[in-house]
Amino acid sequence: MSEGSPACALCGQEKPTVVASVTPAQLQDAWRIIGVTISRAALGDLARLETVKLWRCTNCGFEYSHLEFAGGALFYEELQQQLPNYYPTDSAEYSRAIQFAREHGIGEVLDVGCGAGAFLDLAKKTGLRTHGVELNPKGAAIARSKGHTVYNDLLRTMIAAGDHPRFDLVTTWQVLEHVSDPAGFLWECAQLMKPGGYLAVAVPAEDGINSLSPYNPHVWPPHHVTRWRLTHLRQLGTKIGLKFVSGGNDRLNPYNARHMWELHNQLAPVFGYKQYPGGKFLPKVLALASAKTGLHKLLPDWGHSTYAFFTSAPKNAADGRQRVNG
Asked: Could you give the maximum distance between any two Cα atoms of the chain, in Å?
């Protein structure tokens, strides 16, 4: 199987630089350490690679892996069966989006990749009319049972129908990093916005605490195939004809940082790198001291996610469609 380097998924530049690589067997071992057994069938053709690479674009700095090996239905079925909290019940992006909706007079929301409807539950409590898109039948059924309108069609199918609904706010939380065509996916999300509507995105922050554990199997294929910083979210929005409204990183949570520190040390035997010093004692003390003193509030926003809000930019919309489709 070919292991050549693909063009940058963001700017199209050829010949990226390899910044890290692992083997499929190492990824399976890493998943086992955190309590998940991923079958070879779930890895799919990724299992046939000699090495799984992470590339960095020499033009725009965007980092991405093997886009063609984004996880399929079996992979996510195995994850969800073994990780009962795979879909979060709350996160910073949820409350941030609710506040944004209040400030901008938004009446209805569509959450793309809504899972069992955790964000929609919060949105409904605040008076928003709630809609979701979810391809997982079990998740969609749970969300519907709570009173949300949930579509289980692919976005492109909804758009091709021509008479699809449009919404004041379209959200997609922790989805973009999983898809093989991020520009195409976000463009499809944007087609479901009303004129003058908004699109909100959140992804793991590559320059946040995730960087403490760069070999966490969650950030490698078949789970994640792209890695994001705010500058790249803004670049993607411009590419598809959207106007950036606001964005940033989550605040640093010292206990999340402790978890990533300990995870890095836990995975060290699998990948053969050196552990951080201090065992479990040092990250525990640092996290507790930071939380007690509030020191983490004075540090940069190194939290788990980076986020962006966009709105339509009519002048560039046609150009964006042409670039994504062509």
From this structure: 59
What percent of the chain has pLDDT above 90?
A: 80
CB atoms within 10 A of CB 289: 12
> Which tokens is 131 given?
């809609």
Phi and psi at 119, nearest 5°, equal -65, -40
The encoded tokens of residue 174 equal: 């922790």
Neighbour tally for 202: CB within 10 Å: 27
What amino acid is encoded at 97 in this protein?
A
Residues 6+ apart with CB under 8 A from 111: 117, 119, 120, 123, 130, 131, 132, 133, 170, 171, 172, 173
Mean pLDDT of 58-64: 97
Question: Domain limits at 66?
Answer: 17-82
Q: Which residues of 88-126 are buried (b: 16+ CB within 10 A; e: fewer)?
A: eeebbbbebbbebbeeeebebbbbbbbbbbbbbbbbbee
pLDDT of residue 157: 87
Instruction: Tell me: pLDDT of 323 over 60.
Output: no
Phi, psi of 154 (to 5 degrees): -60, 150
Query: What's phi and psi for 225, nearest 5 deg?
Result: -120, -5
Is there a single domain that holds both residue 128 and residue 73? no
Picking from 59, 82, 105, the residue at the C-terminal end of a domain is 82
Q: What is the pLDDT of residue 73?
A: 87
- DSSP letter, residue 228: B
Residue 154 covered by a domain: yes
